[in-house]
């Protein structure tokens, strides 16, 4: 179970940080360090299960929520969005200020 979590974390880091060797190497080194520090824990222990679950959650976060941006010549960022990235529907942007923030819509910075 721990080995599968470790491999999943490495794969997720490679996907999330593809093309950025500095950050990729730092992520891989940190993943290895985290697993090496806890190498001697009992595999059936509660602490080990919590650490494995944490590694799986970090891998999921890397796969679904980390997007790379690269500054191009025109001063804009080009995002590398791969298939695993979670996309929202922006429904909260359609809610009027009076119901979203709990205010009346007449207070705040934009009131006349």
TrEMBL record:
It is found in: Mitochondrion matrix. InterPro entries: Complex1_LYR_LYRM7, MZM1/LYRM7. Residues 83-112 are annotated as: Disordered. CDD domains: Complex1_LYR_LYRM7. Residues 83-94 have a biased composition (Basic and acidic residues). Interacts with RIP1. Assembly factor required for Rieske Fe-S protein RIP1 incorporation into the cytochrome b-c1 (CIII) complex. Functions as a chaperone, binding to this subunit within the mitochondrial matrix and stabilizing it prior to its translocation and insertion into the late CIII dimeric intermediate within the mitochondrial inner membrane. Modulates the mitochondrial matrix zinc pool. Belongs to the complex I LYR family. MZM1 subfamily. This is Mitochondrial zinc maintenance protein 1, mitochondrial. It comes from Discina gigas.
């Amino acid at each position: 179970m721990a080995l599968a979590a470790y491999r999943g974390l490495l794969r997720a880091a490679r996907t999330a940080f593809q093309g950025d060797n500095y950050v990729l190497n730092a992520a891989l080194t940190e993943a290895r360090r985290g697993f090496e520090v806890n190498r001697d824990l009992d595999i059936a222990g509660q602490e080990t299960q919590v650490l494995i679950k944490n590694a799986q959650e970090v891998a999921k976060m890397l796969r679904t929520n980390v997007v790379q941006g690269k500054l191009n010549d025109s001063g804009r960022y080009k995002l590398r969005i791969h298939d695993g990235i979670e996309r929202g529907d922006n429904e909260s942007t359609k809610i009027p200020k009076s119901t979203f923030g709990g205010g009346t819509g007449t207070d705040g910075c934009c009131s006349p």
